[in-house]
Amino acid sequence: MSLMARLTDDMKQAMKDKEAGKFRLGVIRMARSSIKNAEINERRELTDDEILTILSKEVKMRRDAACEFEKAGRMDLVSGVEAEAAILMSYLPEQLSAEEVEAIVKQAVEQTQATSAREMGKVMAIVMPQVKGRADGKLVNEMVRKALGA
Predict the structure, then answer these.
(1) pLDDT at residue 132, as a whole number
(2) Which fold does the domain 98-148 belong to in CATH?
(3) Structure pTM?
(4) For the chain, percent of residues with pLDDT exceeding 90
């Protein structure tokens, strides 16, 4: 089942759940809206990989918003944004652990024989396709910097 079909089925189920599914329905509609906007801009249907990229961006936006709300002391808003992120995360593949990402980074560093921060781009070019949608880019970036001693 494609990701878009799964979103549609979950949206229908949330509609049937009435009050219990209202919050979930809103999040799914927002996600579908983002995907539809991208399809309109591209003038074609998106692949599951492209949809995963959009959903990952949406999760990242919510995590960033949660951090900002926390800094501002708005804990009432933090819980709502984190709940939205949790619903969106259910559509992403299982996330890699820090150890798994670190192993991928080490392998990429060995493969490229990178030794300095200047060669970070080479390492990132190998790592990112392997972890796409399964790890936060910020975490990957930090681990690559650490591995290269930057």
Answers:
(1) 83
(2) Arc Repressor Mutant, subunit A (1.10.10)
(3) 0.82
(4) 77
**Helices 137-148, 98-112: crossing angle, 10 deg rounding:** 50
**Cα 111 to Cα 66, 106, 125, 127, distances in angstroms:** 37, 9, 12, 11
Average pLDDT over residues 41-65: 94
Domains 3-89 and 98-148 share a fold: no
What mean pLDDT comes out for the span 28-43? 97
Domain positions in the chain are 3-89, 98-148
Residue 74 corresponds to which amino acid?
R
What CATH number labels 3-89?
Answer: 1.10.1510.10
Could you tell me the CA-to-CA distances from 68 to 49, 72, 78, 102 in Å, in that order?
A: 29, 6, 9, 28
Could you tell me if 115 and 148 are in contact, meaning their C-beta atoms sit under 8 angstroms apart?
Answer: yes
Give one DSSP letter per residue of 103-147, joined into a string. Answer: HHHHHHHHHHT--SGGGHHHHHHHHHHHHTTTS-HHHHHHHHHHH
Q: Is 143 left (phi over 0), alpha (psi -120 to 50) or beta?
A: alpha
